[in-house]
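User: What would this chain look like folded?
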Amino acid sequence: MIMERLGLRARLYLASGSILLLFAFNVGTHLWGSYARSESVLAYRDATEATTLVRNIEQGLSTENQRVQVLAALRETNAPIGETQREQANDELTSISDQLRALGGLSNTDTETAFREFYKPAADLLNEWMLFYGNYNDVTVPTSLSPETYTKTLERLSALSDQHNNVAMERSTVIDNTIQLTDRITIIAFISSITITLVLILTLIRTTNASLFRLRVGVEKFGAGDLTHRIDENRDAGEIANLAQTFNEMSASLQTAMADLDDARSDAEAANEAKSMFLANVSHELRTPLNAIIGYSEMLQDEVSDGVEIDRDQFNHDLTTIIFSGRQLLALINDILDLSKIETGKMSISVEPFNAAGLVVQVCDALSPLLAQNNNRLDLHVEGAKDVEVESDAAKVQQILTNLFSNACKFTKNGVISVVATVDEDTLHLSVADSGIGMTEEQQAKVFQAFVQADSKTSVNYGGTGLGLAIVSNFCDMLGGEIALTSTPGQGSKFDVSLPIVPA
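Assistant: Here's the prediction, encoded as structure tokens.
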């Protein structure tokens, strides 16, 4: 029931509003009846006044027609009329004309057409009589009296009179019907108001008692130790629903307190595990290039100390390995320092112009040893950014591309690393794609998180600290750009970076 879905305040408002609405309906019915009666009375009064005017006009036209006919016969005997008689005739014609205008003012939608049909021949008739009186004493001017105009005027006047009589009868009937209808509606509305008011009050009492009963049962069960009991919030609304919701939230909070503690303990253990794994990965990643640097340095030292002839190719190879390992070590340290600066908000941006295509080629050349480690092939396309000057932080753009390229080389064997650079309107687009191991949707969801790798086995099989992509994501945000990832397990991954060529 609707009342049960409302709060206490809403129920009281509904009951009070319904009663006021019924009262307003009664008042409105009375006002409508009064208005309808007033309109009908006014229309009836106008119709009766119009009927009286029609009779007066008809009498005036008849009298004047008789006078004109007599004077027309006397005119044939050359009997003139005096100025006083002419003025009297003009006054009577003016009076008839005024009555015509008054009759027009009493016309409505029902009689307007009939009045227009009557008014024209009547006006023509009055004009004929005015000319007749004006030229009466001038025998050289022939009379222009038309009996047809007078007959037509009387016919149209009779039709207009019938219209006004019909309106008067209709309005009289409407007045009687309105009075009867208003009285009937008023009685029905009064009885309905009393009935509905009683029903609303009884329903309000019943629904309120039911809502309070459900609250009492819930409190009693809670007091007895049943923390699983819930009060049905959908049965009520407003204040009662809020009470039920508060009760349910309190029960749920108590019920899940232990579960929350277990979850917190599990989260802490997971955090410690992630921390331990990160430290282990960092230690491994630091030791690997350090061991290479130390090992190859000792070998070179031994060769120099022995005084034997040095194999220049081997010597150069060992130096290249040392330099490469040093760069690896430096890159790892830089990643840790960069992430620390980002998290503390101390990372700054240095904007300068640079050639986009040249920077991409430089990065790919510098990382060519990584490409050769896993026997990968580079597919480079920079034609879309050739000879284009870009204003941004060149160092950060370089690191973005370096981290993406290093990742692609690390997770791809005997495959293809595709690097594409284009400039479209005001945006620099960098794309790094590989044909490596790829990632699942779950792995993609956390690949940009710091200290987290796509899979726990990744660090064991491929190494790494899980910082590279986190730094890439942060740098893209700092430069006002964005990065997108598409990947398919076993088929490879593609990173698309979009950066504004002029910072905002």
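The domain at 30-176 is CATH 1.20.120.30 (Four Helix Bundle (Hemerythrin (Met), subunit A)). If you want, I can go into more detail on any region.
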